[in-house]
Amino acid sequence: MRIVSGIQPTGKYHIGNYLGAIRHWIKLQEEHECFFFVADLHAITLPQDPEELKKATLQKIIELVALGLSTERCCLFVQSHIQEAPELAWIFSTITPIGELERMTQYKDKKNKTKDSANAGLFLYPTLMAADILLYKAEGVPVGQDQLQHLELTRETARRFNKRFGETFLIPKAMVPELGAKILSLTDPKRKMSKSDPLDSQILLLDEPDAIRKKIFRAVTDRGTVVSYDPAKKPGISNLLTVYSLFAEISVKEVERKFAKKGYAVFKKALADLLVRKLEPFRRKYAELASRDVYVQEIIKQGAKRASSVAQDTMEEVRGKVGFLQV
Length: 327
Ligand code: TYM
What we know:
The chain has 327 residues and is mainly alpha-helical. 56% of the residues lie in helices and 7% in strands. It has two domains: 2-180 and 293-322, Rossmann fold; 206-288, Tyrosyl-Transfer RNA Synthetase (Orthogonal Bundle), CATH 1.10.240.10. Residues 4-8, 16-17, 19-21, 39, 42, 129, 132-133, 141, 143-144, 146-147, 181-183, 192-193 line the site of ligand 1.
């Protein structure tokens, strides 16, 4: 299968990004043709400091490699290096009804937060996402739950384009994990863990052991003392159980059994120890790669080259179908 997915460079990567998406990318690259990118074009839908954005984009490529993405097994690139993506997004914007974009919950949330400063890019965001995916004729898109609505719009865009201009795009499938598709905030377990929220609500992949222990210790749990999985009644402890289960690679039931009669404090300590141990190799690898500038630049160049060649083929076909004069 051909697989495509992206992640924004802003904020710091947290365990939600890892468990909901990146963890699957690492597995998928072993068996499929994968294209993964850092979505800097999407990032500028909110104001960014240009120098900080450059730094963050580079840092995120390093993080992805440190986590296990390998350039021998996948194509890793920076979204803005592929000029065809905004071109295709523009074409998609002309076949997408305004009403459909207005229904996007992420747009509504961000618009409410930014009030009068909301820009048109925020509104068109899903058409760019559709272009990112369809440009590579992706069959599967591994994402967390919060991207499902955008994926549905992408599928509709592909259908609409095919109907109007002839069969061109495959209809991609969202690949959402059964467990971990929505890791919740540590301080408010009714909401998803989010890069734009205060740092004590998230475990960052690059957090030092001390920070991990403090955050887990302070994580909001629910009334009672029994470590049991009940997302509706006990969202806090169920979220921590999910995290434990995924990092330890054992089922939630087994985690429950392991901590039966042990209480929240023992469970939290064990979870913090587990996270410290599991994230340690990543911190080490990141530090090692951070000083290898030339190597990382080469990865980015190679990624752009490979992604461009696929993107150019698709756009040549699209331009002809839409009716752009080619000379
Ligand atoms: P972004 O950068 O917000 O998130 C990257 C990936 O992490 C997942 N995720 C989570 N999963 C579980 N629990 C959480 N708390 C959590 N928070 C984030 C997201 O679902 C996502 O899979 N618009 C996208 C980037 C993008 C993209 C694309 C993705 C641009 N073009 C094309 C797929 C295909 C975004 O902002 O993701």
